[in-house]
Amino acid sequence: HRDSPENNPDTPFEFTPENLKRIEAIINNYPEGHKSAAVMAVLDLAQRQHGWLPISAMNKVAEVLEMPPMRVYEVATFYTMYNRKPVGKYHIQVCTTTPCMLRDSDSILEAIKKKLGIKVGETTPDKLFTLIEVECLGACVNAPMVQINDNYYVSTT
Fold first, then answer.
1. Which end of the chain has fewer beta carbons closer than 10 Å to its terminal beta carbon, N or C?
2. What is the pLDDT of residues 68-115, one digit of tens each?
3. d(CA 12, CA 140)
4. Phi and psi for 38 in degrees, rounded to 5?
5. Ligand-binding site membership of 131 (annotated)
6. Distance CA 106, CA 132 (A)
């Protein structure tokens, strides 16, 4: 992580009262003394609340779960489901691993890039669309696969 004006330890982030209740319910799913097991679910909750995961949100997750911040960073940087920079309203993820590539995901990716006028890893100027290329999304039998926000689109053409 490198601090920036919009992403630094002083960036405001607090869980809403509703999400604090959700966190309590999530933690209750794990044995006593194992709050840290909830890290993935609580990171997801923080991301859904804020739209992405600034370092201050990760620090808050560490605080709530009583775990070292570095352990939270390790999880947030390992999994591609966590966005460590802002994404557009519509987060388009195109799978280009072998099964999808063999079913022409490259042409789908090119068509989206052309239509939106952006490259992979970019967001449109109006902040509506972010396009990324991802590893397997787990729908190989119905390749090619595109995920937009939480929705899966299989057998795309």
1. C
2. 999 999 999 999 899 999 999 999 999 999 999 999 999 999 999 999
3. 40
4. -90, 5
5. no
6. 12
Q: Is residue 7 part of a domain?
A: no
CATH number at residue 48: 1.10.10.1590
Q: What CATH number does the domain containing 114 carry? A: 3.40.30.10
**What pairs with residue 155 in β-bridges?**
none
* Residue 95 annotated in ligand binding: yes
Give pTM, 2 decimals: 0.85
Instruction: Answer yes or no: is 140 a known binding residue.
Output: yes
- Domain boundaries, position 30: 17-78
Summarize the confidence of residues 108-136 as an average pLDDT: 97
Say which amino acid occupies 130: T
In a domain, 71, yes or no: yes
Which residue pairs, CB below 8 angstroms and at least 24 apart, start in 52-55?
52/83, 52/84, 52/85, 52/86, 52/87, 53/82, 53/83, 53/84, 54/6, 54/7, 54/8, 54/11, 54/13, 54/84, 55/1, 55/3, 55/7, 55/8, 55/9, 55/11
Q: Is 113 contained in some domain?
A: yes
Mean pLDDT of the chain: 95
